[in-house]
Design a protein that fits this description.
By secondary structure, the protein is an alpha+beta fold. The protein is built from 13 helices and 22 strands. Strands 5, 6, 7, 8, 9, 10, 11, 12 and 16 form a nine-stranded mixed β-sheet that branches. Strands 13-14-15-17-18 form a five-stranded antiparallel β-sheet. Strands 2-3-1-4 form a four-stranded antiparallel β-sheet, sandwiched between helices.
């Protein structure tokens, strides 16, 4: 425990419930507009010092069990994220850093990937990796809900990237798997399997991961290493190992000025070592490094990538697809994306990621735009969420009650039917999906995995 902190305060903080917090998704709504919306919910919000988009919600103004079922959450306007968890991405972008190509080594469930995408304004590219196959699905669901379009997902042990993609990324975030000592306020069982032996094993893995991440970083690039644990073995000692191993090519960049009050948690090395009682948050550790020179590359990995299953569309076919998409209210920056096909599927890939094709196997790249049929295209839900234009001629705005029914997966019966057979269903001008008008009803097209069967009565959070 640092000299200025007491063990009694630490134990007391760990026994208090964690304050709920959220981050505004600026890919979909500005902070100012979200604050206006939150006033209607009667939420009492307190700004988080290290994240301009982050807010604590004071408990007296919130039924926490309903937060995930808020219409504004389902529509991707905010992400439920613990306040300390917002620190690593803030550190990655500190000092006006604007990376074009970023890697998130351990990305699920997606809080940091979506935060990165928002700060990049969906420009450039992100490789978001997750080792657990089941968590890749969760990662994709969250980036899709938030309208992220510049990401590619991979499913690898993070230790392969230094060899597979050497000196490729402008910035790398390694939020490393750890013993979880800092999350006990949220999860009382977080340390049920804790032991000194397991900490030593985890620290060995972390050293291998940070070495791989450092190799994948371009000279001049920024690496942020973070954990949600508190012991020096997984934090300061892992960082020192990197500094000792690559002494001629790495330097620490202090985080003491990252935000007002950072001095309360800064270490003598310039890292942030956040104990729960300091900011009334989860425990966290964050360090930032700069790669100052190129280093000897690792041996080429022995695995086989396999045949890349996509082929690019011709210019003529691309123009046809773009014209059809525009007619359905979809649009995107054409210079930023390229159109690819796999069987009947039409995909939009971030152009900046194309040099990586064939070097690693991707679970998913960019956005699945449509399925192609002889009589036209069937636009996919994730593309509608990411690329719908706000002033589309076929937009049809829903009120709260109809939006609740939409998320319950049932057909909608508005008082006034849409003017077009194909309509872009919106709520607060946010796209919820494309649907067909059949007589006086709108046929629900929400993908089954997104339906909230038992949550309809909880979707609105105002206290009326």
């Amino acid at each position: 425990m640092p000299a200025g902190l007491s063990m009694d305060d630490f134990i007391a903080a760990c026994q208090r419930p964690l304050r709920p917090s959220l981050r505004v998704n600026t890919l979909k709504i500005s902070v100012a507009d979200f604050l206006t919306l939150a006033q209607g919910y009667q939420w009492d919000l307190e700004p988080i010092p290290w994240c301009a988009e982050g807010f604590w919600i004071r408990r007296h103004s919130l039924d926490e069990s309903r937060l995930g079922n808020a219409l504004s959450h389902l529509a991707g306007l905010f992400y439920i994220q613990e306040a300390s968890s917002m620190l690593p991405v803030t550190a990655l972008f500190a000092g006006g850093v604007q990376p074009a190509l970023v890697m998130d080594v351990a990305a699920a469930p997606g809080s940091k990937t979506t935060q990165i995408a928002a700060l990049m304004e969906n420009r450039g590219g992100i490789v978001a990796n997750e080792y657990s196959a089941s968590r890749v699905k969760v990662l994709h669901a969250n980036i899709s809900r938030c309208g992220v379009s510049n990401a590619a997902l991979t499913h690898f042990d993070g230790r392969v990237f230094g060899a597979a993609l050497p000196e490729t990324f402008d910035a790398v975030l390694l939020d490393a798997p750890c013993s979880g000592e800092g999350v006990i306020r949220k999860d009382p069982d977080a340390m049920s399997n804790w032991s000194e032996e397991s900490v030593a094993e985890i620290a060995a893995t972390q050293r291998e991961l940070i070495e791989s991440a450092f190799h994948a970083l371009k000279p001049g690039g920024v690496l942020v290493y973070s954990t949600c644990t508190l012991n020096a073995q997984e934090n300061q000692q892992v960082c020192q190992w990197l500094l000792d191993t690559y002494a001629s090519a790495v330097e620490t960049e202090s985080l003491e000025d990252l935000f007002d009050g950072a001095h309360k948690a800064v270490t003598q090395e310039g890292y942030l070592h956040v104990f729960p009682q300091v900011y009334d948050s989860e425990g966290f550790f964050v360090a930032r490094f700069r790669k100052t020179d190129s280093i000897t590359r690792l041996p080429v990995p022995g695995y086989k990538v396999g045949r890349f299953p996509f082929s690019p569309f011709s210019r003529q076919d691309s123009a046809e697809i773009i014209k059809a998409a525009n007619g359905s209210g979809l649009s995107w920056p054409e210079k930023q994306y390229t159109l690819w096909q796999r069987d009947k599927e039409v995909w939009l890939f971030p152009a900046i990621l194309e040099p990586l094709f064939g070097k690693v196997r991707f679970s998913r790249i960019g956005i699945r735009l449509a399925e192609r049929f002889p009589k036209g295209f069937r636009w996919q839900h994730e593309a509608v969420v990411a690329f719908s234009v706000t002033d589309a001629k076929n937009s049809f705005e829903l009120d709260d009650e109809l939006a609740q029914n939409w998320w319950r997966g049932v057909d909608i019966y508005p008082e006034t039917a849409p003017l077009t057979d194909e309509c872009l269903v919106t709520w607060l001008n946010q796209p919820l999906g494309l649907a067909k008008r059949i007589g006086s009803r709108i046929k629900n097209s929400l993908p089954r995995e997104l339906v909230r069967d038992g949550a309809a009565r909880h979707l609105k959070l105002s206290n009326d």
